[in-house]
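Fill in residues.
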């Protein structure tokens, strides 16, 4: 199928095609689940459209712990199938996108009174290795107290009994999702952000498409499709309600907050997965110039469109860090940024947030709407396969065409992929040198290689056109050019939050570059002065939320549904 465009400048053409053709499949939701489904469907020959009401990955898929991991918790819940599936998927997703899914060694300290004792941790992670086919150096290693302290000297020695050193993968969830949608588009899918499904259309009692509102202009149009999948994450019940099929199982949303501190304040050598006083476990993850820590897990009933971190959330995380890393003494003054996301879990009576299953579920309504909820970023590919298999099973009753079997296991999520982690590390080193030569901090070499892979070459070339600017501004302007022309950036937040992750991991850079970024976005995207003002105001709100801690959650009326906020 013909490759479509991922340039924001081609949005009008995309929207025209969306309303003039009939699609085999319409996917609602541009998170990891929806974009994964679009890629699977398009690569099997289905004529596929995807619409996202805000930006790709603007829901849960930019707010996770950013790990591609098997999840020890599933083992504890004796969900062997899920351990096996996510465990195996980790290696596949790493192979498909090695620049954005990198191996990460984890240390799990074993402490007096902690969740796992030495033998339980040893046995559990051994089973985990076997189920997930982990080989060689990546197999779990048991450490004694001294070895654990050598791996991570910041740990408190008092109640430390030992540790387990094991392997997972770290990612950038938003960038992974962007690569997924770009790859889906390369395989012929049509995709548009800022297009919200406001209603469904039906004929003979079956769903035949959706009424969509362009959130940038307010225009409404119809998309016709033979099958419709709702991959709306935390909003999926709203879509099921529109279809009049919200019966039986429902979502139970839980909020997860992460805080970000400068790496020099909490200079971990490795990711640490540690016990917190209430019996849960959380991660502290070094990343570039920062370390981020999370997550909380609390039932959430407030505003879905503006989820914020409260004082209590930040205190919970800081107390947890301070209890196991006795010399760190985190306070509010140390916090650089934060994010808060919602887990779209399936409600189970009597279970606490942490006990709820992370397994995905598929609902097919009497009028044919297919909805998917739950699951993990890590399992996006298998979830997509299950959905498209289901769609094709339905098609086999009516369509005479033959479709291919799932082949996403072999589709790289980059046009010019790096071969493996070794190639990624070599490329990081190369870009670190080039960054220094260009007058940038070494950090930007690591950042460019792990955010964009070899696509960084186009950005570095473009920098030559901005020699009148400082190196930092020239880099930001080159990224604006790249992400507008290749990654469907339509709003300032798309750039600062999802494409570059600067709001979370490099917030200190925003002040210096934002004037030039806004000016370029205005020029490329033809913004009026009024629109520019709105973008500047909305970005200020995002900066406020990332750096402030609310007394309580925001109630729904405070943020308007679909408002240009994030
Ligand atoms: P989303 O990313 O929320 O996407 C749904 C999209 O649908 C949204 O972008 C939304 O705007 C859009 N939408 C909704 N309604 C409409 C409409 N009417 N029209 C058009 N579009 C619409 N998983 C892991 O594997 N590893 C982790 O480390 C991890 N950590 C996590 C930590 C936290 C705190 C949380 C909250 C989750 C974590 N997860 C993790 C889970 C993972 O992030 C989610 O399972 C995954 O991102 C869900 O993706 P999704 O596409 O289903 O939902």
């Amino acid at each position: 199928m013909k490759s479509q465009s991922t340039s924001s400048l081609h949005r009008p053409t995309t929207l025209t095609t969306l309303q003039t053709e009939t699609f085999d499949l319409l996917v609602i939701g541009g998170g990891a689940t929806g974009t994964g489904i679009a890629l699977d469907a398009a690569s099997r020959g289905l004529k596929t459209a995807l619409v996202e009401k805000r930006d790709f990955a603007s829901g849960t898929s930019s707010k996770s712990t950013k790990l591609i991991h098997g999840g020890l918790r599933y083992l504890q819940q004796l969900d062997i199938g899920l351990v096996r599936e996510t465990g195996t998927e980790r290696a596949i997703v790493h192979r498909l996108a090695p620049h954005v899914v990198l191996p990460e060694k984890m240390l799990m300290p074993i402490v007096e009174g902690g969740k796992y004792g030495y033998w339980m941790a040893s046995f559990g992670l051994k089973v985990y290795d076997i189920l997930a086919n982990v080989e060689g150096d990546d197999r779990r290693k048991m450490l004694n107290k001294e070895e654990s302290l050598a791996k991570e000297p910041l740990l408190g020695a008092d109640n430390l009994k030992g540790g387990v050193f094991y392997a997972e993968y770290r990612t950038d969830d938003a960038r992974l999702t962007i690569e997924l949608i770009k790859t889906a588009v390369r395989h012929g899918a049509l995709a548009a952000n800022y297009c919200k499904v406001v209603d469904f259309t039906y004929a003979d009692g079956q769903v035949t498409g959706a009424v969509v509102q362009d959130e940038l202009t307010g225009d409404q149009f119809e998309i016709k499709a033979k099958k419709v999948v709702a991959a709306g994450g935390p909003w999926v019940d709203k879509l099921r309600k529109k279809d009049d099929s919200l019966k039986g199982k429902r979502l139970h949303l839980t909020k997860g907050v992460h805080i970000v501190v400068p790496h020099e304040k909490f200079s971990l050598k490795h990711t640490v997965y540690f016990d917190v006083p209430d019996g849960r476990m959380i991660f502290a993850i070094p990343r570039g110039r920062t370390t981020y820590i999370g997550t909380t897990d609390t039932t959430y009933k407030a505003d879905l469109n503006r989820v914020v971190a409260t004082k209590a959330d930040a205190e919970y995380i800081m107390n947890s860090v301070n209890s196991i890393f006795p010399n760190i003494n985190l306070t509010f003054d140390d916090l650089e940024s934060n994010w808060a996301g919602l887990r779209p879990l399936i409600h189970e009576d009597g279970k606490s947030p942490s006990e709820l299953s992370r397994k995905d579920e598929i609902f097919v309504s009497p009028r044919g709407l297919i909805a998917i909820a739950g699951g993990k970023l890590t399992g996006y590919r298998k979830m997509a396969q299950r959905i498209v298999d289901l769609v094709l099973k339905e098609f086999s009753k009516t369509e005479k065409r033959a479709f291919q079997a799932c082949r996403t296991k072999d589709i790289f999520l980059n046009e010019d992929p790096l071969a493996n982690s070794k190639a990624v590390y070599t490329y990081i080193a190369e870009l670190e040198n080039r960054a220094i030569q260009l007058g940038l901090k070494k950090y930007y070499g690591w950042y460019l290689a792990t955010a964009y892979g070899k696509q960084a070459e186009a950005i570095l070339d473009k920098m030559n056109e901005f020699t009148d600017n400082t190196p930092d501004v020239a880099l930001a302007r080159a990224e604006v050019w790249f992400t507008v022309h290749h990654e469907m950036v339509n709003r300032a937040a798309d750039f600062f939050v999802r494409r570059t992750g600067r709001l979370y991991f490099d917030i200190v850079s925003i002040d210096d570059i934002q004037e030039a970024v806004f000016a370029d976005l205005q020029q490329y995207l033809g913004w009026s002065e009024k629109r520019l003002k709105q973008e500047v105001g909305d970005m200020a709100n995002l900066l406020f939320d990332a750096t402030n801690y609310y007394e309580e959650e925001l109630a729904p009326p405070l943020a308007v549904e679909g408002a240009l906020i994030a």
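The pocket of flavin-adenine dinucleotide is lined by residues 28-34, 51-54, 58-61, 63-67, 69, 196-197, 231-235, 239, 256, 295, 341-343, 375-378 (CB under 6 Å).
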